[in-house]
Amino acid sequence: MAYEVESKFPVDSHDTIKAELADLGATAGVSIRQADQYLRHPCRDFASTDEALRIRRVNDSAVLTYKGPRLAGATKARFEAEYSLDADGRSGDGFAEIFTRLGFEPVLIVRKERQPFTLEFEGHHFEIALDRVESLGCYVELELTAEDDSLEAARSAVTALAARLHLGTPEPRSYLEMLLTK
Protein backbone atom coordinates (compact mmCIF):
# COMPACT_ATOMS: atom_id res chain seq x y z
CA MET A 1 0.00 0.00 0.00
CA ALA A 2 1.34 3.47 -0.88
CA TYR A 3 1.50 6.12 1.80
CA GLU A 4 2.06 9.83 1.64
CA VAL A 5 4.62 10.78 4.33
CA GLU A 6 4.86 14.50 4.95
CA SER A 7 5.51 17.28 7.38
CA LYS A 8 4.41 20.88 7.00
CA PHE A 9 6.13 23.88 8.61
CA PRO A 10 5.06 27.51 8.96
CA VAL A 11 7.73 30.02 7.87
CA ASP A 12 7.89 33.80 7.74
CA SER A 13 9.08 33.76 4.13
CA HIS A 14 10.45 31.35 1.56
CA ASP A 15 13.67 33.23 0.80
CA THR A 16 15.94 31.37 3.26
CA ILE A 17 14.46 27.98 2.34
CA LYS A 18 15.00 28.62 -1.38
CA ALA A 19 18.68 29.35 -0.70
CA GLU A 20 19.03 26.19 1.45
CA LEU A 21 17.34 24.08 -1.23
CA ALA A 22 19.68 25.51 -3.88
CA ASP A 23 22.67 24.59 -1.68
CA LEU A 24 21.36 21.02 -1.46
CA GLY A 25 20.94 20.80 -5.24
CA ALA A 26 17.14 20.86 -5.35
CA THR A 27 15.45 21.40 -8.71
CA ALA A 28 12.76 24.09 -8.85
CA GLY A 29 9.58 23.58 -10.80
CA VAL A 30 7.19 26.16 -12.21
CA SER A 31 4.98 27.97 -9.69
CA ILE A 32 1.33 27.00 -9.91
CA ARG A 33 -1.96 28.11 -8.41
CA GLN A 34 -4.08 25.40 -6.83
CA ALA A 35 -7.70 25.45 -5.75
CA ASP A 36 -8.62 22.46 -3.57
CA GLN A 37 -12.36 21.92 -3.17
CA TYR A 38 -13.03 19.66 -0.18
CA LEU A 39 -16.23 17.65 0.01
CA ARG A 40 -18.24 16.45 3.02
CA HIS A 41 -19.67 12.92 2.86
CA PRO A 42 -23.46 12.79 3.34
CA CYS A 43 -23.37 9.88 5.84
CA ARG A 44 -19.87 9.91 7.28
CA ASP A 45 -18.08 12.61 9.26
CA PHE A 46 -14.66 12.92 7.64
CA ALA A 47 -13.51 15.14 10.51
CA SER A 48 -14.04 12.29 12.99
CA THR A 49 -12.74 9.55 10.66
CA ASP A 50 -9.74 11.73 9.69
CA GLU A 51 -10.33 11.30 5.97
CA ALA A 52 -10.50 13.80 3.13
CA LEU A 53 -11.96 13.91 -0.36
CA ARG A 54 -11.02 16.78 -2.65
CA ILE A 55 -11.00 17.95 -6.22
CA ARG A 56 -7.79 19.85 -6.96
CA ARG A 57 -7.73 22.23 -9.88
CA VAL A 58 -4.33 23.23 -11.25
CA ASN A 59 -4.18 25.31 -14.39
CA ASP A 60 -6.00 23.20 -17.02
CA SER A 61 -6.27 19.95 -15.09
CA ALA A 62 -8.24 18.44 -12.24
CA VAL A 63 -7.38 15.58 -9.87
CA LEU A 64 -9.62 13.69 -7.46
CA THR A 65 -7.83 12.76 -4.20
CA TYR A 66 -8.89 10.54 -1.32
CA LYS A 67 -6.79 10.65 1.87
CA GLY A 68 -7.24 7.98 4.51
CA PRO A 69 -6.84 8.35 8.26
CA ARG A 70 -3.43 9.38 9.56
CA LEU A 71 -1.21 6.71 11.04
CA ALA A 72 0.29 7.34 14.47
CA GLY A 73 3.77 8.86 14.46
CA ALA A 74 5.76 12.07 14.50
CA THR A 75 5.34 12.67 10.77
CA LYS A 76 2.02 12.63 8.99
CA ALA A 77 1.58 9.36 7.07
CA ARG A 78 -1.63 8.20 5.43
CA PHE A 79 -2.98 6.25 2.49
CA GLU A 80 -3.51 8.52 -0.51
CA ALA A 81 -5.05 7.80 -3.91
CA GLU A 82 -5.14 10.36 -6.72
CA TYR A 83 -6.89 10.08 -10.07
CA SER A 84 -6.64 12.48 -12.98
CA LEU A 85 -10.06 13.67 -14.05
CA ASP A 86 -9.18 15.16 -17.42
CA ALA A 87 -6.73 17.11 -19.49
CA ASP A 88 -8.68 20.36 -19.79
CA GLY A 89 -9.96 21.06 -16.25
CA ARG A 90 -13.63 21.04 -17.23
CA SER A 91 -14.53 17.64 -15.82
CA GLY A 92 -13.43 18.83 -12.35
CA ASP A 93 -16.65 20.85 -12.34
CA GLY A 94 -18.58 17.88 -13.69
CA PHE A 95 -17.28 15.58 -10.97
CA ALA A 96 -18.11 18.19 -8.31
CA GLU A 97 -21.67 18.27 -9.67
CA ILE A 98 -21.90 14.46 -9.58
CA PHE A 99 -20.74 14.39 -5.96
CA THR A 100 -23.20 17.15 -5.02
CA ARG A 101 -26.05 15.22 -6.65
CA LEU A 102 -24.97 12.16 -4.62
CA GLY A 103 -25.36 14.15 -1.40
CA PHE A 104 -21.79 15.36 -0.85
CA GLU A 105 -21.53 18.98 0.22
CA PRO A 106 -18.75 21.45 -0.52
CA VAL A 107 -16.84 22.31 2.66
CA LEU A 108 -14.30 24.91 1.62
CA ILE A 109 -11.90 25.78 -1.19
CA VAL A 110 -8.26 26.10 -0.14
CA ARG A 111 -6.41 28.42 -2.51
CA LYS A 112 -2.65 28.54 -2.66
CA GLU A 113 0.32 29.43 -4.78
CA ARG A 114 2.80 26.56 -4.82
CA GLN A 115 6.47 26.55 -5.83
CA PRO A 116 7.43 22.88 -6.23
CA PHE A 117 10.95 21.48 -5.83
CA THR A 118 12.42 18.00 -6.11
CA LEU A 119 15.42 16.84 -4.13
CA GLU A 120 17.43 13.66 -3.69
CA PHE A 121 18.36 13.53 0.00
CA GLU A 122 19.74 10.55 1.93
CA GLY A 123 18.64 8.17 -0.83
CA HIS A 124 15.07 9.48 -1.00
CA HIS A 125 13.27 11.43 -3.72
CA PHE A 126 11.54 14.37 -2.04
CA GLU A 127 8.71 16.48 -3.36
CA ILE A 128 8.98 19.84 -1.61
CA ALA A 129 6.38 22.59 -1.82
CA LEU A 130 6.76 26.21 -0.83
CA ASP A 131 3.14 27.25 -0.32
CA ARG A 132 1.58 30.67 0.13
CA VAL A 133 -1.90 29.81 1.37
CA GLU A 134 -4.65 32.40 1.10
CA SER A 135 -5.58 33.62 4.63
CA LEU A 136 -2.87 31.48 6.30
CA GLY A 137 0.57 32.56 5.06
CA CYS A 138 3.76 30.73 4.06
CA TYR A 139 4.50 27.04 4.61
CA VAL A 140 7.05 24.44 3.56
CA GLU A 141 5.88 20.87 2.90
CA LEU A 142 8.33 17.96 2.72
CA GLU A 143 6.82 14.84 1.17
CA LEU A 144 7.81 11.29 0.27
CA THR A 145 5.86 8.31 -0.98
CA ALA A 146 6.51 5.04 0.84
CA GLU A 147 5.31 1.47 0.90
CA ASP A 148 4.67 -0.53 4.10
CA ASP A 149 8.25 -1.82 4.28
CA SER A 150 9.83 1.64 3.84
CA LEU A 151 7.45 3.72 5.95
CA GLU A 152 9.74 4.17 8.97
CA ALA A 153 12.76 5.00 6.79
CA ALA A 154 10.67 7.64 4.97
CA ARG A 155 9.55 9.16 8.26
CA SER A 156 13.17 9.35 9.44
CA ALA A 157 14.24 10.95 6.16
CA VAL A 158 11.53 13.64 6.42
CA THR A 159 12.62 14.42 9.98
CA ALA A 160 16.29 14.57 8.91
CA LEU A 161 15.59 16.95 6.02
CA ALA A 162 13.47 19.19 8.24
CA ALA A 163 16.35 19.40 10.71
CA ARG A 164 18.84 20.13 7.89
CA LEU A 165 16.59 22.99 6.69
CA HIS A 166 16.11 24.31 10.28
CA LEU A 167 12.33 24.17 9.91
CA GLY A 168 11.38 23.90 13.58
CA THR A 169 8.11 22.41 14.80
CA PRO A 170 5.81 20.82 12.21
CA GLU A 171 2.18 21.89 11.86
CA PRO A 172 0.12 18.69 12.16
CA ARG A 173 -3.14 20.15 10.83
CA SER A 174 -4.08 20.31 7.17
CA TYR A 175 -4.66 23.68 5.51
CA LEU A 176 -8.37 22.83 5.55
CA GLU A 177 -8.33 22.21 9.32
CA MET A 178 -6.45 25.47 9.92
CA LEU A 179 -8.88 27.48 7.80
CA LEU A 180 -11.94 25.88 9.44
CA THR A 181 -10.68 26.82 12.91
CA LYS A 182 -9.68 30.34 11.90
TrEMBL record:
Pfam families from the UniProt entry: CYTH (PF01928)
CYTH domain segment(s): 2-181
Gene3D superfamilies documented for this protein: Hypothetical Protein Pfu-838710-001
Superkingdom to which the source organism belongs: Bacteria
Protein name: CYTH domain protein
Lineage: Bacteria, Pseudomonadati, Planctomycetota, Planctomycetia, Planctomycetales
CDD domains hit by this protein: CYTH-like_AC_IV-like
UniProt xrefs under NCBIfam families: cyaB (TIGR00318)
Organism expressing this protein natively: Stratiformator vulcanicus
